[in-house]
Design goal:
Blueprint (H helix, E strand, L loop, with lengths): L3 H9 L8 H14 L3 H4 L3 H9 L8 E2 L10 H14 L3 H24 L6 E4 L2 H11 L7 E5 L4 H14 L2 E5 L8 H11 L4 E7 L11 H9 L5 E4 L11 H4 L3 E5 L11 E5 L33 H4 L1 H11 L1 H19 L5 E3 L12 E5 L4 H12 L1 E2 L1 E5 L2 E6 L7 H17 L4
Parallel strand pairs: 1-11, 3-4, 3-5, 5-6, 6-7
Antiparallel strand pairs: 2-8, 7-8, 9-10, 10-13, 12-13
The structure holds pyridoxal-5'-phosphate (PLP).
Pyridoxal-5'-phosphate binds next to helix 7 and helix 8.
Length: 427
């Protein structure tokens, strides 16, 4: 529960804190001081109101697609604007001599949050850039196989498909159980698909279309024993799940920061284990002197400093919420709607609600109701934004609340779904 002092203090602040950021920081610091377990703090609506108020979201709509890209708290937007305005005072000086070097501070903060050496973190524009650096930067020969699943992100699959056309590599995709409550089965399927020419495994930490958490550490361990590198797509895991690099023990990990860290749009990072940096080519050419330097992955020409520097402010917000508390709240919000809807006979969840296998993201199918039509209906009639997922093996609405989502908004979503289950879609 929020301490009385933090609560009253926060109430007194709005005059001086129009963006609600200080109030949120104080409220969450107060919650930390009480020592409340994350699962208890997750249910404290007084506390999460401060997080809700830190955003400038449009409350005329209900945005349940926070998996795609997230809004940033007002304070993060302010920081970005500040850096942008400063950059424009004298760009050649400010960008390259003042703000550019400040990137090192962000690198250090990110490394601390991910639990690695700052010399293993490259700041990128998104998960796509981070992952494609690995996908295109590892040497592969004609006929070499890349092993992945049919639930990987389309752009990452497109990258391998292009490499197949260009370099003659072979892309092999396995099917995974949906949902999966037996992590060993996922490892088994990858292991069983390894052949004499398998040179690389590519795997999501959290699968975007179902929210399934994948046993990355076990896959890395199994592959390492066979000398096969693993690229981990962490687009949906960093700052969503509370974990550290050592929990995965992987060599390559790419993520976006505009999803779960709530950093400015167009931010991400690439982790490459130190010993592996030299063996990975950058996407854009870098001088030989940088061969063993993580900064070779940042040689992208002139680019804004504002986005990447404002990551610092997003990290401060994330740290104030607390990684464990945030994960618990996200799971609580998911359970709030999913446990209500699963009581209906015609509701099929494609996501396990076991906390070990999922968090904020869940995908729900309404049997007998076309998913795309349902998604359109929710938007047209209720201004509720969800994502229609159509995969060869399943379909459903992907529903992703975030820390700014209120229980009332989730009630409105569930009411709208129940009405359709009762009455069908309007003609
Ligand atoms: C699993 C996964 N990988 C990679 C990406 C690419 O992220 P971005 O578009 O931020 O580069 C996404 C985006 O949704 C994703 O869900």
């Amino acid at each position: 529960m929020v301490s009385r002092r933090a609560f009253l203090g926060a109430l007194a602040l709005p005059l001086f804190d129009p963006r609600g950021f200080v109030a949120a920081m104080e409220a969450f610091q107060g919650a930390s001081a009480t020592g409340a377990a994350p699962s208890d703090a997750a249910r404290d609506e007084n506390l999460w109101r401060f997080a809700q108020d830190a955003f400038t979201v449009d409350r005329a709509i209900i945005n349940l697609n926070n998996g795609g890209v997230s809004p940033a708290p007002a304070r993060v937007q302010d920081a970005m604007r500040r850096y942008l305005e400063y950059s424009n005072t004298a760009p050649a000086y400010v960008l390259w001599e003042v703000l550019g070097p400040q990137r090192e501070g962000v690198r250090q903060r990110l490394a601390r949050a991910f639990g690695c050496d700052p010399e293993e973190i490259a700041i990128t524009r998104n998960a796509s850039e981070s992952l494609e650096t690995c996908q295109l930067g590892l040497d592969l020969e004609r006929g070499d196989e890349v092993l992945t699943s049919n639930q990987d992100y389309p752009r990452m699959l497109t990258t391998y498909e292009q490499r197949a056309r260009r370099d003659g590599i072979v892309l092999k995709q396995i099917s995974l159980p949906i949902p999966c409550e037996d992590p060993a089965e996922i490892v088994r399927r990858f292991e069983a698909a390894i052949g004499a020419r398998t040179r690389l495994i590519h795997v999501c930490h959290v699968i975007n279309i179902t929210g399934q958490i994948v046993p990355v550490r076990e896959i890395v361990e199994m592959a390492r024993a066979r000398g096969i590198p693993v690229i981990v797509d962490g687009a949906h895991s960093f700052a969503h799940l509370a974990f550290a690099a050592s929990d995965l023990d992987c060599d390559y990990f790419g993520t976006s920061l505009h999803k779960w860290l709530f950093a400015p749009h167009g931010t991400g990072f690439l982790f490459v284990r130190r010993a592996k940096i030299r063996g990975l080519w950058p996407l854009m050419a870098a001088p030989a002197v940088l061969d063993g330097d993580i900064r070779k992955f940042e040689e992208i020409g002139t680019h804004p400093a504002a986005n990447s520097l404002a990551i610092g402010e997003a990290l401060a917000f994330h740290e104030a919420l607390g990684a464990e508390r945030k994960e618990a709240r996200l799971r609580y919000l998911r359970d709030y709607w999913a446990k209500r809807l699963r009581a209906h006979e015609r509701v099929r969840l494609h996501t396990s609600l076991d906390p070990r296998y999922s968090c904020a993201i869940a995908t729900v199918e309404l049997l007998g109701i076309d998913t795309a039509a349902m998604q359109k209906h929710l938007w047209a009639r209720h201004r509720i934004h969800t994502v229609a997922i159509k995969h060869p093996e399943f379909e459903g609405l992907r529903v992703t609340p975030s820390v700014y989502t209120t229980l009332g908004e989730l009630d409105r979503f569930s009411d709208a779904v129940e009405k359709v289950l009762r009455d069908g879609l309007p003609g």
